[in-house]
Design a protein that fits this description.
332 residues, mainly alpha, 69% helix, 0% strand, globular
Length: 332
């Protein structure tokens, strides 16, 4: 079997899937925000259907077998530790990303509708949070007394033993097909719009701010993010856990920056008196995020910190160049 430069065995089938998925993501987002929104709504309904089928089957089996339901163990058990909770949170970040991508679409709505962004983010956050808690609670009660060789397959092992092996197979294929085709297009939408905004503001190259004359999408930013994603995915094709940790570090670092920016903008620059909203709450968020990041893998921390340092150096040089030229970068 062929290997790459790092000694990781090559996987032609996996590489083909990466290229196919990237082409699919670009195609979904190429024909305009309305087209991608309709497609994402359809796949979202399919995901809800899958979730409710699983929850219904799990609750039915708990009642039929007489197993304890809605126990306290899933929240905190004898073997639970704070370090374990934060370590698990660092791995689960990717499963909870996405609602913040709503804010990247601010350029696609009318000015009088901007107030809807806060409501949309809060609604998604509360809804998905509640569903995640219920899902994990039912699954944890179902798995009581079982031992797992690999935590990543614990869900399917539990379904096989407690519900039915056929149900496990059907759910696994449904998740692979439905979730795989639904989770990535919104991410590509968010990334391309961020690159567009940074290009428009002058933080990145101006061509990234180009808009397709017919479909009104940031097509240069879309293609740029697609090419970068393909290169990174191919490089880490045999190290999915490492790639996931790096992505999660980037998300947590971004959330930390948002909290820090809230303090600097409102508490420092505007001298806001709302200390609870503009100082205490962001500080609590930064502390929680720092605790989660401290439990991440070493490769994720090394790559993430190096990437942040490189970004800081580039931005500092750009700021110095702008200052010498006597102009400031405009923010759209």
């Amino acid at each position: 079997m062929r290997s790459d430069a790092r000694g990781v065995p090559a996987n032609p089938a996996g590489q083909r899937w990466i290229l196919l998925t990237a082409a699919y993501n670009i195609a979904v987002n190429w024909f305009g925000i309305k087209t991608s929104a309709r497609f994402n709504l359809g796949t979202l309904l399919l995901q809800f259907a899958m979730l409710f089928v699983f929850l219904g089957a799990g609750i039915y089996m708990l009642a039929r077998s007489g197993m304890p339901r809605v126990t306290y163990t899933p929240r905190w058990g004898a073997a639970t530790t704070p370090a374990g909770v934060f370590s698990a949170a660092s791995l689960c970040v990717m499963a909870y990303l996405g609602f913040d991508a709503i804010t990247t679409l601010s350029g696609d709505v009318r000015h009088d509708q901007r107030h809807l962004f806060g409501r949309a983010v809060s609604t998604c956050r509360l809804t998905l949070g509640a569903l995640a808690i219920i899902d994990v609670w039912v699954l944890s009660d179902l798995s009581r007394g079982l031992a797992f060789k690999d935590p990543t397959t614990a869900t399917f092992e539990t379904i096989s033993v407690r519900i039915h092996p056929l149900f496990r197979t059907v759910l696994a294929w449904a998740m692979a097909l439905v979730v795989a085709v639904s989770i990535t297009p919104p991410m590509v939408t968010g990334v391309s719009h961020i690159l567009y905004a940074m290009g428009h503001a002058g933080a990145l190259r101006r061509p990234l701010a180009a808009v397709h004359p017919r479909y009104r999408v940031p097509h240069v930013a879309l293609l740029t993010s697609g090419v970068a994603s393909i290169a990174i995915a191919l490089y880490f094709a045999g190290e999915f856990d490492t790639l996931t940790s790096i992505v999660n570090f980037g998300a947590l670092a971004a959330f930390t920056a948002v909290n820090a920016s809230t303090i600097m903008l409102f508490a420092v620059a505007r001298r806001s008196r709302r200390r609870s909203a503009h100082v205490v709450s962001p500080l609590l968020g930064i502390a929680a995020l720092a605790a989660v990041m401290a439990q991440m893998s070493r490769p994720a921390l090394v790559v993430g910190v190096a990437w942040l340092a490189a970004g800081g150096i580039v931005q500092r040089r750009r700021a110095g160049t702008s200052g010498r030229r006597g102009r400031r970068t405009a923010v759209p």
